[in-house]
From TrEMBL:
<keyword id="KW-0808">Transferase</keyword>
<dbReference type="GO" id="GO:0008168">
    <property type="term" value="F:methyltransferase activity"/>
</dbReference>
<keyword id="KW-0227">DNA damage</keyword>
<feature type="domain" description="Methylated-DNA-[protein]-cysteine S-methyltransferase DNA binding">
    <location>
        <begin position="17"/>
        <end position="96"/>
    </location>
</feature>
<protein>
    <submittedName>
        <fullName>Methylated-DNA-(Protein)-cysteine S-methyltransferase</fullName>
    </submittedName>
</protein>
<keyword id="KW-0489">Methyltransferase</keyword>
<dbReference type="InterPro" id="IPR052520">
    <property type="entry name" value="ATL_DNA_repair"/>
</dbReference>
<dbReference type="InterPro" id="IPR036388">
    <property type="entry name" value="WH-like_DNA-bd_sf"/>
</dbReference>
<dbReference type="InterPro" id="IPR014048">
    <property type="entry name" value="MethylDNA_cys_MeTrfase_DNA-bd"/>
</dbReference>
<dbReference type="GO" id="GO:0032259">
    <property type="term" value="P:methylation"/>
</dbReference>
<dbReference type="InterPro" id="IPR036217">
    <property type="entry name" value="MethylDNA_cys_MeTrfase_DNAb"/>
</dbReference>
<dbReference type="Pfam" id="PF01035">
    <property type="entry name" value="DNA_binding_1"/>
</dbReference>
<dbReference type="GO" id="GO:0006281">
    <property type="term" value="P:DNA repair"/>
</dbReference>
Length: 118
């Protein structure tokens, strides 16, 4: 992850969204990334909450792998009883991830963009 944001702090919202979507689209099946890691990989520094808000606005029919973005420490932030939470858990399990106590083993399933950049 970059130490300094790649985008200038005053980058327009469309450029920020595009950067997040570009990185999110690259998360491979069976891997997860936290909101904060996604923000950093997109060059936004410490913008985890902004990324979370952005993701909450995705259309229902998005093809982006939103289900692979989770909270820090491997925690699934969508409530288990909600439709979106159920769908996220179902998709992650279909990709081979084990969910225990609403958590994914981030050490085993965490993704770092440099692992797949070759």
């Amino acid at each position: 992850m970059p130490e300094q944001p790649l985008l200038p702090p005053d980058a327009n919202p469309e450029a920020r969204r595009a950067a997040v979507y570009l990185v999110m689209a690259q998360i491979p099946p069976g891997k997860v990334v936290s909101y904060g890691e996604l923000a950093a990989m997109a060059g936004l520094g410490r913008a985890a909450r902004w990324v979370g808000r952005l993701m909450s606005q995705l259309p229902d029919d998005t093809r982006l792998p939103w289900h692979r973005v989770i909270a820090a420490g491997g925690r699934l932030s969508l409530p288990a009883g909600s439709a979106a939470g159920h769908e996220q858990r179902q998709r992650l399990r279909a990709e081979g991830l084990t969910i225990i106590n609403d958590r994914v083993d981030i050490r085993r399933h965490g993704w770092h963009s440099f692992e797949h950049s070759e």
